[in-house]
Amino acid sequence: MIGIMVVSHEPLGTALIRCTRHIFGRLPPQLAALDVIPDEDPTVAIGAARELLARINDGSVFTAVFGATPSRIAMMLAEPHRVAVIAGVNLPLLVKALYNRRGPLDETVGQLIESARNAIFPLEQVPAEPAAAAGGQAPVPSDAAPPGGDGASSKNASSKKERKDV
After folding, report:
1. How many domains does the chain have?
2. In this predicted structure, what is the pLDDT of residue 129?
3. What is the pLDDT of residues 34-91, one digit of tens each?
4. CB atoms within 10 A of CB 60
5. Is there a domain that residue 109 lies in?
């Protein structure tokens, strides 16, 4: 299974991961967030990012704003065929990644990028079958953590200000 990590400005990554709890009813496993605080020492942040990446067994790393400090930290994690970095994270992209992380990394990343391109549209052009049509609640992926247990991790890069796991 492909691990997923969000590296972003504080508190975006943790907020996105917490949103998955609303969608799936629990936190999916092998999911982590690194919230980079203002004036963060990039050396500390990259160390924290590597620790989290090891905990989720590599995979996809999402970041929000290309060129910003979190994306530069995320790019330092990239390894061909092992760790892919994608800029432009949003909740639909994260949910799609959580549902489609059993295949080969490179193939999955290509599908995610194509899907993300089609996920933004004016509301007057709503797709014929929105996700809510599935009974109002999304089905839980078979690899989601059981209620009460969670496979998600959240970490603030600063050694001075660490958060508990989400």
Report:
1. 1
2. 64
3. 999 999 999 999 999 999 999 999 899 999 999 999 999 999 999 999 999 999 999 9
4. 23
5. yes
Sign of CA dihedral 13, 126, 28, 147: positive
How much is the CA Rg of the chain, to the nearest whole Å?
A: 15
Cα of 113 vs its chain's centroid, Å: 14
Residue 80 belongs to a domain = yes
Q: For residue 166, tell me if it sits in a domain.
A: no
**Six-digit token string for 103:** 């295949």
Instruction: Return the residue matching tokens 């905990």.
Output: 55
| Contact residues for 47 (Cβ-Cβ < 8 A; gap 6+) | none
Q: Which two tokens stand for residue 110?
A: 């290509």
Tokens 């809510």 locate to 132
Distances (CA, A) of 100 to 2, 55, 72, 84: 9, 20, 25, 14
Residue 18 DSSP code: H
Q: Has residue 12 been placed in a domain?
A: yes
* CATH code for the domain in which residue 152 is found: 3.40.50.510
The rounded distance, in Å, linking the Cα atoms of 148 and 146 is: 6
Q: How many other C-beta atoms lie within 10 A of the C-beta of residue 65?
A: 14
